[in-house]
User: Which sequence fits this backbone?
């Protein structure tokens, strides 16, 4: 990550002190500049103190770098209490001599300035604290308070300049926090003195939804992510999310994962979705999108793979109850820890925050599959373009992680079915479209595969039935009036059954007729044969008689000759 | 603030019980010109206005750095009026006697702030 400035770059490669704050080290390419001060500025309540404190605590606990926290605003008790709610036990670390908390109180009402002075007292206190525990890290929060406590800005400025130089000489990695000024990074121009690394925190409200963002404005001698990154403050401290790498270089898998609906797997070339692919299930209201998603979640858990279910419309309890009605019991998976629900209203917080939350949940739960139900609500939060950008980043992130994602999306039948609210259609690999077919006074569901990248798939519409044992896909009938579904299909089936029966009966009748004819023929042949046999017998008899007579004649003639003593010679 | 001023006006220093002992503490960091000047100025003011009823304790933070936190010392030199109450802090080399007297509530005056 470090840039090379000149040929000696290798030797001069900037040493970095990891912050241990998830995401921040990725953005900064390893942490804050080691042995140098970093300015963290932002408006009130943007999380400066917390970021600084986490830097110190992680340093003390994870990197064996003790730290000094010099607070100018809050008393150590307040500070300890504030960070305890975020899961940090500072008291314990103080007792272990890994952290020193010192409260520097500068109250203008109590101080009179007469003549020349310097801030050596502050230096001595800081120096003592550093030396007591061998601190490698220092936080000054917020040193600008000095400007409201002391009036001689000329002295303050030269002393601050000396302080930051002194910190560098001490070789401590420091965070100096500063309040955001009007048009400047800090109210008193601290950025003038701290020029190695500047991080700006921001707490913005758009459409009444607030999002925290972090940006590395400057990092001398190092490449760094320059975007604004959303970050979260929750029970585990800060997490920054550095996903903007839209590099399209993720690993692809040939492995297939079943969709949980056997017939759908068949439609998708027999095996289901590609692992790590993104599947969009879009459809009108009540077309069964959630059920398709739930089947996938169920199949995932059935294989023993963890699944993260992000619900933006229904509570987990409601989803489980509803799925039970189609014979899908998801509760055991929840109990086994395979299925993790995260339910939040889409407009509960900003898109960036959703992204950050999902990012974090994925990190914690480490799922193989993710269901988002539905994504269409997100575009109501930040507008269409923002929602698309957010989903692009999310899909990218999931792909890099090799997570199979099923996203459902509500489409407006008026606006056209093949159009999704968030315009993510081009991002997804497989698109299943659920639609209603109105025919013969009823509304039935049908599904087809609109696209499936990289796999042969059925181009046929299937009727989609929600039965008490899950989703069933059946063939639809194509009649002269178009696709037949529901009772029209059943009627058609009945008609076809009738016709079939009739045909079979006709066939059987024909066979019987043939058989009879054969029998008649056989009988006639038999009779003719008999007739012929008797004729032949008669003929033989006549012939034998004739022969007998000829012989008798010859004999008689011979005998006559003898008796006549015929002697002609 | 206003309250303090009001208190101070009630406790007109000149009308005070002269037996009250002033306990002053001067924080320095080594023998720097500023510290030396501050001590000299303080000594002079005390001799002129509080002769015989003051104590000055000089604390060198280079020798005793751990004492800096107790009195919330940031700037050097800092003069702390421990007694009489309320506690007052004056930072600087005390080059302006008039203002020092006002700062110590030894003399009424208009505060700049």
Assistant:
């Amino acid at each position: 990550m470090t840039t090379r400035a000149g040929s000696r770059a290798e030797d001069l490669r900037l040493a970095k002190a990891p912050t241990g704050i998830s995401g921040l080290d990725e953005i900064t390419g390893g942490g804050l500049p080691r042995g140098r001060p970093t300015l963290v500025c932002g408006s009130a309540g943007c999380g400066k103190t917390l970021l600084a404190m986490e830097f110190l605590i992680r340093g003390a606990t994870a990197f064996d770098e003790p730290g000094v926290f010099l607070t100018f605003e809050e008393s150590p008790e307040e500070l300890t209490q504030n960070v305890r709610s975020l899961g940090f036990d500072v008291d314990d670390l103080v007792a272990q001599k890994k952290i020193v908390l010192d409260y520097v109180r500068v109250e203008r009402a109590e101080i009179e300035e007469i003549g020349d002075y310097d801030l050596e007292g502050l230096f001595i206190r800081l120096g003592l604290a550093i030396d007591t525990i061998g601190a490698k890290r220092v936080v000054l929060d917020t040193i600008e308070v000095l400007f409201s406590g002391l009036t001689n800005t000329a002295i303050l400025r030269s002393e601050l300049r000396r302080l930051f130089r002194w910190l560098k000489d001490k070789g401590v990695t420091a965070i100096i926090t500063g309040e955001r000024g009007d048009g400047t990074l800090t109210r008193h121009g601290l950025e003038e003195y701290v020029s190695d690394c500047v991080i700006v925190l921001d707490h913005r409200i758009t459409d009444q939804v607030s999002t925290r963002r972090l940006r590395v404005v400057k990092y001398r001698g190092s490449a760094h992510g320059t975007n604004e990154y959303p970050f979260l403050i929750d029970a585990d401290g800060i997490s920054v999310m550095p996903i903007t790498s839209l590099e399209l270089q993720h690993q692809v898998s040939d492995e297939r994962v079943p969709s949980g609906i056997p017939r759908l797997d068949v439609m998708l070339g027999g095996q289901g979705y590609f692992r790590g692919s993104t599947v969009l299930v879009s459809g009108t209201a009540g077309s069964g999108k959630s059920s398709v998603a739930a089947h996938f979640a169920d199949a995932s858990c059935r294989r023993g793979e963890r699944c993260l279910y992000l619900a933006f419309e229904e509570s987990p309890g409601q989803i489980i109850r509803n799925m039970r009605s189609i014979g899908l019991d998801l509760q055991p998976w929840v109990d086994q820890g395979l299925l993790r629900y995260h339910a939040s209203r889409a407009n509960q917080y900003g898109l960036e925050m959703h992204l950050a939350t999902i990012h974090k949940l994925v990190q914690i739960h480490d799922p193989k599959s993710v269901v988002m139900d539905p994504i269409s609500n997100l575009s109501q939060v930040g507008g269409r373009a923002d929602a698309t950008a957010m989903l692009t980043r999310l899909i990218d992130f999931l792909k890099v992680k090799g997570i199979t994602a099923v996203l459902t999306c509500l489409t407006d039948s008026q606006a056209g079915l093949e159009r999704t609210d968030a315009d993510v259609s081009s991002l997804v690999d497989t698109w299943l479209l659920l639609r209603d077919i109105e025919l013969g006074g009823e509304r039935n569901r049908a599904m087809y595969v609109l696209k499936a990248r990289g796999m042969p798939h059925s181009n046929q519409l299937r009727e989609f039935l929600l039965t008490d044992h899950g989703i069933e896909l059946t063939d639809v009938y194509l009649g002269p009036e178009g696709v037949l579904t529901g009772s029209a299909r059943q009627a058609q089936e009945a008609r076809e059954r009738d016709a079939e029966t009739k045909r079979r009966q006709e066939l059987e009748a024909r066979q019987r007729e043939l058989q009879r004819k054969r029998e008649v023929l056989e009988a006639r042949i038999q009779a003719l044969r008999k007739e012929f046999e008797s004729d032949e017998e008669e003929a033989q008899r006549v012939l034998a008689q004739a022969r007998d007579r000829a012989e008798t004649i010859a004999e008689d003639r011979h005998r006559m000759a003898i008796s006549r003593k015929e002697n002609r010679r | 603030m206003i309250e303090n001023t009001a208190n101070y006006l009630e406790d007109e220093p000149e009308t005070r019980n002269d037996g009250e002992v002033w306990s002053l503490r001067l924080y320095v960091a080594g023998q720097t010109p500023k510290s030396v000047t501050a001590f000299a100025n303080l000594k002079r003011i005390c001799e002129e206005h509080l002769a015989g009823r003051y104590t000055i304790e000089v604390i060198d933070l280079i020798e005793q750095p751990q004492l800096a936190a107790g009195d919330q010392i940031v700037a050097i030199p800092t003069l702390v009026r421990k007694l009489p109450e309320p506690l007052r802090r004056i930072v600087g080399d005390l080059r302006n006697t008039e203002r020092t007297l006002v700062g110590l509530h030894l003399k009424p005056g208009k505060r700049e702030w």
